[in-house]
Amino acid sequence: MRRNALIGLLFTAAVALFIVPVIAPPRTAKSPAPAPNELAVPAPVPRELAIPAPVASPRLRAEAEKMSKQRILQRDMEATELLCRSDCTLDMTRFLRDHAGIKAEDRAAHLRQAMKEHPHMLKIAWTSQGKTVQAGKPADGLEQAAAADWKQAKQALRQGKTYQSRTFKYGGKDHFVLALPDGGKPGEGVAALVTTDVVQQVERHQKRNLRLTPYPSEGRYRLESVLPNTNRDTTVKNGEDNQNASHYAVDEIVVKFQKPLTSKELLALRKELSLTVVRHRGQTYLFRSSRYKMDQLKERFAKWNPVYVEPHYLYLTHETGGTSGASSGSSATGTAGTIVPNDTLYSKYQWNLPEIATNKGWNVTRGKDDVVVAIVDTGVQSDHPDLKGRLVQGTNIIDPTQPPNDDVGHGTHVAGIIAAQVNNNEGVAGMTWYTKIMPVKALDSSGAGTTYSVAEGIIWATDHGADVINMSLGNYAEAQFLHDAVKYAYDHGVVLVAATGNDNTDRPGYPAAYPEVFAVGATNQDESRAEYSNYGDYVDVTAPGTSIASTYPGSRYAALSGTSMACPHVSALASLVRAANANLGNEDVMDLLRKTARDLGPAGKDVDFGYGQIDVDAAVRAANAEAASQQQAETPPQNLAGETGETGESFAERIRRQLERLFGTDGSQP
After folding, report:
1. With 521 labelled, which of 15, 134, 235, 296 sits at a CA distance of 20 to 30 A?
2. pLDDT of residue 41
3. Which one is catalytic: 377, 407, 503, 617?
4. What domains are defined for the chain?
5. pLDDT category, 213, cuts 50, 70, 90?
6. What would the 3-class secondary structure string for 443-502 be?
7. What gap in Å lies between CA 312 and CA 255, rounded to an integer?
8. Please, what is the average pLDDT of the chain?
9. pTM higher than the cut 0.70
């Protein structure tokens, strides 16, 4: 039927001497499975980095799932330490190179500046031309704990050798000693005492994000745990219980009235219910009561016949575990036009980018600096050297008087996956070279945020020009105010992308399960569904999510796992698609990502992978081809059928080419 319709259009075009533009499909969320995509090319799997994963069965027993998550956490912690050691070695190598010509009297000042830029280096000794300058004074106990390793480091320098000690603990934190000779000159070089406390930071918040421990703890925020979309109380005793629980503030409630309250009505409510207006937008109010609990407030507000009244839910990050670890240089070109950036941690740690053919897609587009991805999260480290020049103005919903800085690590890690500087001889490579990041801090220092703060963040980002909004967060309860914000952004053309969650459950999580939102699950290095990743018929696609290296606060790097890490891969791809074809609407972009995904698991759409794992090269090529087709369709022909235009191709030849594309190269129907 479609073939006949297209033939009719082509012959009509031949007679009327114009081409009808391609009509975009209707905007329907969670659309049915698209036709197989001919452009999708399987990306090679970096087997040297692959770690066999447990069978990702939806019915993994709770204990087996917990053990699997603990293995992931341990692997991420080990990877983070390796990243930290690699990055510190590179920093000290760069220091020796850049300070080779410094005068003796200026060395101490330069060394102090280096320590200021790298606060995880607690003590540095620099020997040059027979003289040693030192900066940093660790605690006496730490000096003693490191004494034997420090002695070996100095001995290695005298022999012109490099040295790295074992990891040792002091004060509950990991440390190691590093020595680097200066060009092999015996006795000259640097020795440093380094803390890898980022490993402990990753362990603490990844235990929560992987739901290995109850999170959040009841009592914080005056929270209560309930069964999703009910007010029936439940108790979260362990991480497994999180998948059957939602959390809300016991003394707060969100009410959307039929119309905004008058000053008189608001005053009466405040007196009657001992209310404080925490936040207010239009006819929607967030109230807190010093006398009544949520269920009591809900009953009392019912008489106002509100549009809705609901608990003030809490939304949590979807990260599981982690690893820690700048003038443009030249990139290399690998096989089949693959671009290999010179970022120092790329080749060894970033399995995820070649897995989804990012490097090939860069031959089509590397992004544009007028495309903005908002990250509604914990904030972003604004002065991270690998995010330099990539941030636009953001906002802090939690505390509007403060900038949207990251006090957790989650948002900075998400930002680096999308937009870490590429090919700058430093750190990691992001998926885009030019896309801008808009940091929207809607989650606090615990990594959690409320319905209102997340909704406010979405609305703010939309009003300030975001093209894509990344939401690596979620809850199992539907909040109507949050859905209102999602629909507002969707109606303004924003592509909304959200993580499904890390509880290995098919229970729909929100905002990912809203029909206007593109839902993302996670895959492992062997292309299996990650054992923690939520699944279900609402999942659109999957993306790499396990042991993903990216930027981390303190100007460092970490490897984390979770659907929180998979989500920004898709947000980055959406920004690349919009760079390749600015005429695509938000539903057009989402439909293209579905069509170009590389099918994994059972043929067609399935509950584990949705339409498959994203394919950057296929997606941007399809977007670019669509843009070219639109441009051709919108350009009226200048000549009659027998004449040639500027391209040397006659209009009749263009019609013949269109028919050949339909029926085959010989013009006959297959």
Report:
1. 235
2. 28
3. 377
4. 72-201 (3.30.450.20), 216-316 (3.30.70.80), 345-627 (3.40.50.200)
5. low
6. CCCCCEEEHHHHHHHHHHHHHCCCCEEEECEEECCCCHHHHHHHHHHHHCCCEEEEECCC
7. 10
8. 80
9. yes
Q: Are 324 and 556 in contact (CB under 8 A)?
A: yes
Of the two residues 187 and 358, the one the predictor is more confident about is 358
CB 598 within 8 A of CB 40: yes
Please state the three-class secondary structure of 80-135 as a single string: HHHHHHHHHHHHHHHHHHHCCCCCHHHHHHHHHHHHHHCCCEEEEEEEECCEEEEE
Is residue 436 scored above 90 in pLDDT? Answer: yes
- In the set 118, 312, 410, 569, the catalytic residue is 410
**How wide is the angle at C-alpha 379 spanned by C-alphas 377 and 383, nearest 5°?**
150
Length of the chain counted residue by residue: 670
Token readout for 579 is: 């760079």
Separation of CA 500 from chain center: 13
Q: Of residues 166 and 642, which shows the higher confidence score?
A: 166
Read off the tokens for 411. 């948002």
The model's pLDDT over 369-404, given as tens digits with 9 standing for 90+, comes to 999 999 999 999 999 999 999 999 999 999 999 999
DSSP 519-575: EEEEE-TTSSBPTT---STT--EEEE-SSEEEEETTTEEEEEBSHHHHHHHHHHHHH
Among 246, 564, 571, 575, which one carries the catalytic annotation? Answer: 564
**555 classed as catalytic:** no
462 in Cβ contact with 492 (< 8 Å)? yes
Angle formed at CA 609 by CA 604 and CA 614, multiple of 5 degrees: 90
Q: Is the pLDDT of residue 565 over 60?
A: yes
Query: Could you tell me whether strands 223-226 and 189-195 are parallel, antiparallel, or unpaired per DSSP bridges?
Result: unpaired
pLDDT in tens, 540-561: 999 999 999 999 999 999 999 9
**Contact present, 39 and 622 (Cβ < 8 Å):** yes
